[in-house]
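Issue 218. Parser rejects a valid record. Input:
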Amino acid sequence: MNDIGDAQRAGQALDAGHATEDPFAAAIRGTHMPIVITDARQRDNPIIFANQAFLALTGYARAEVIGRNCRFLQGPETDPATVAELHEAVRAGHDVGVEIVNYRRDGSRFWNNLFLSPVRNDAGEIVYFFGSAMDVTARKAAEQAERENLKSSIHVRARELELALEQKTSLLHEVDHRVKNNLQLISSLLLLQTRRTPDEGTRRALRSMLERVGAIATVHRRLFQGGDVQRFDVSEFLRDLANDLAASARRDDLQLRLDLEPVAIPASQAAPLALVANELISNALRHAYPEGQPGVITIRCRRREDAFDLEVSDAGAGLPPPAERNGFGLTIVQLLAQQLKARLSLDDAQPGVLAVVTVPTTT
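Output the parser choked on:
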């Protein structure tokens, strides 16, 4: 008696049932879980037993199932990768569990939660594969519906966010327009007052205020030109400000040297930093070198681990006597440095002045 014959008779015995059959065989035949057993020793691993639950699930008669490989349940929407996973498990002789699209006899598709396990004899050889099935179509449909609902909710939320962004952008443009107009109005009033004021000292004071308003306008322009109104690019601002102040000074004999590393700070720090930079740069342009004396003014921006340095230096006349260092510009710098929690140092570089403001980038 050969092994294949034994397997066929074993399958027939399970199908037929006997009064003296063991409880295990009775359980396999009577369970509501669809079960098949295949013969691993025969070519193409054919089914030798299918219980009534399996026949009810697939719609096939027993005679249409026995002797066939389980692939007859596959169809157009069966995932080739899942099929390959099953084939590899059978080849390697290990357990595998997959969810796979199968088809009934009438052509209707269903999701099959399939578990396949090898059965070995005393010698450790695989003689059968035991397969259990479960129709999980309803669960898969519920999962798909949930995914569709989630996608729909995401789409609705994304559209809401788009509308909110559009409204915010529109508001920012409106604010930008109004602030530009207000700053321009203030600048025009200061310029008009400067032209009508006969006293030179008053005119100098008004021109200084005009420069300070210009520094704030440059901050505003830089904030709204960038893509992020929450962060402020210090280096690009210093480049703009220095060029604007140099043009206003009308000193062709002065050269600006810029050494600017990229630094970004919160937008809330932009205005006070702009006024500090304006005072230091404009003071160097006015007082470092007498009219007609050429010179170089260096502006640096250097990153530290948790701060950055703004340096303005020259090789000119140096610091005035201590009694003359209480001007309005220096007072502004000192007050705004306190607001920025920055350290301010003014050193006589001999020659010239080195002004350094160290601004923390963390709070």
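Fixed in the parser; the record now loads. The two ends are 87 Å apart (CA to CA).
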